[in-house]
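As promised in the previous annual report, we have extended the structural survey to additional targets. Below is the entry for Cytochrome b5-like heme/steroid binding domain.
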Amino acid sequence: MSSDSKVILFEELAKHNHKNDCWLLINGKEKIALMFTGRFELNNSSAGYEGKVFAIMQVLTDILAQIHCMRIDVELSHNLASSILPQLQLTVSLWELFPYAKFLSASCVFLDHTTMIPSKPPICKLWINFSEGEHIMLVYDVTSFLDDHPGGDEVLLTAAEKDATNEFEDVGHSDSAREMMGKYYIGEIDASSIPKEHVQETPSATPGVMNQPNRGSDFMIKILQFLVPLLILGVAFALRSSIKKEE
Ligand code: HEM
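The corresponding structure token record, generated without further manual editing, is:
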């Protein structure tokens, strides 16, 4: 979660449930990048502080354009004086990359490891670890989108006041629909404020836990799909032969 990301309580979300004011709650992570480790040498000749920050952001943005990753932790260290390790901690959500400028200003904080005050980064190496992160539920204010939503405003209004992840995913929204969401993003929900009855059986319901496919129940469903028609056929044959015998 980035430092300026607004944390919204479910109680607050639930108030925005009508045509003039409609918020949606949807799991922010569509696809998961399990782990990515990169190492980048920043160019010594790159101009000043802004130049370096820009170079880092460009690398991140290029990678993020190819994968969907909810959380990134970046550690920045330099090889000159190991006692003072300036650090850059970034935790961003994919949607905050839009617009790019917000990402830069919101999340780019360099901290001096010892004094913990913002400092200029030295010539540095950059290691990037993409970790799995938590499943974060994001809140979208779709009021201005209600009239333009291709699926109509009614579906959005009925999806308010609850976790709308399953409804959203069931439609199979396109990538461009997902990109549009960035425009309406207003914050993240405080997961502990969601009442139990509103928690769906999705990854969003278990923050910090990976979206493991439920192999056991999938297997059972497949077996049942095979067995039930056989069972019906068997009963039909049994009935038929018993009726024939009676004749
Ligand atoms: C911020 C949230 C949302 C955005 C930006 C969004 C955007 C879109 C877009 C662009 C489409 C056109 C088809 C596509 O490109 O996939 C679409 C279709 C649709 N959406 Fe959404 N949507 C949102 C939330 C939802 C939710 C929560 C639901 C269900 C409760 C929903 C239900 C539908 C339906 C039923 C269609 C029509 C599908 C069809 O006719 O094939 N949408 N949406």
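Residues 234 and 240 are 10 Å apart (CA to CA). The chain has two domains: 7-31+135-205, 36-130. These points will be discussed at the next consortium meeting with the crystallography subgroup.
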